[in-house]
Design a protein that fits this description.
The protein is an all-alpha fold. It is globular and about 45 Å long.
Length: 254
């Protein structure tokens, strides 16, 4: 089940793991495994990637980073094929992502002995990039009756869906707001009219999909195996300038 109708699909460079994710979801459809289980798997894969980075096993680190990205797509696919959307899963996924992202960059900072301030700024840039991509993508999905577990503005605690506990939703939503609230507000401040403008062209969404977490992890994986580990943090810090470039393009023409 796609998140967008066929006529509005774009080439999502961050979603390269979707075909394998669908195979995983289909294989688990009639089992007791839930999307939450798959989310736990991707957390484990991310932790294994961190272990490998710290110990210099960069090819293995690359494998686990990409595998984490695939599993990150598989939990949502499994929720769709089982027809069991979940706010618990949606917020657990996001909370796990941002914590792992911080740990990925800290592990790279540790082995390169670079500036901690570059690491912090690179993390802020990484998250700002991902937030812009998600902001535009969720706007598209909301316009075309997409997945309602993701909202353009996460301002109020959602009511738990069937099969999940309100307490879990409440706790995870508070964590989500704590970790993502500043990034969400920053992007909205920079482009508050995005939701009422014209439909974003496919080429623009494809370009912005380089901000997607899957593509970000792919860049880290490639740079690790190419021996460019010292350039990873400066790259993400520098690439943040494209946030403002893409917003200017969207405002100027669309």
């Amino acid at each position: 089940m796609s998140k967008l109708p066929q006529e509005h699909k774009f080439i999502d460079l961050s979603d390269y793991g979707r075909p394998v994710a669908r195979i995983i979801a289909d294989s688990l459809k009639n089992t007791r495994f839930t999307p939450i289980h798959v989310t736990i798997w991707f957390i484990i894969s991310g932790l294994l990637a961190i272990y490998c980075i710290l110990n210099g096993y960069f090819w293995l680190a690359a494998f686990f980073l990409i595998f984490k990205s695939i599993l990150d797509a598989a939990d949502g696919e499994l929720a769709r094929v089982k027809q069991k959307p979940s706010y618990t899963g949606r917020f657990l996924d996001s909370v796990a992502d941002i914590i792992l992202n911080a740990m990925f960059l800290l592990s790279i900072w540790y082995i390169t002995e670079g500036s901690i301030w570059v690491c912090i700024l690179a993390f802020l840039g990484l998250q700002l990039q991902g937030t812009l991509y998600n902001y535009y993508y969720v706007i598209l999905r909301s316009k075309f009756n997409g997945d309602t577990t993701s909202r353009v503005f996460e301002t109020t605690t959602p009511i738990a869906l069937e099969g999940e506990k309100q307490l879990h939703v409440n706790i995870l939503f508070k964590l989500y707001k704590l970790l993502y609230g500043t990034f969400d507000k920053s992007i909205y401040y920079l482009d508050r009219t995005a939701g009422i403008g014209k439909i974003f062209p496919k080429w623009l969404m494809t370009s912005i999909s380089t901000f997607g977490l899957g593509f970000q992890l792919l860049i880290i994986a490639i740079m690790l195996v190419l021996g460019l580990k010292a350039s990873i943090l400066p790259f993400f810090l520098g690439y943040t300038i494209m946030v403002f470039v893409f917003i200017v393009i969207r405002k100027s023409f669309y």
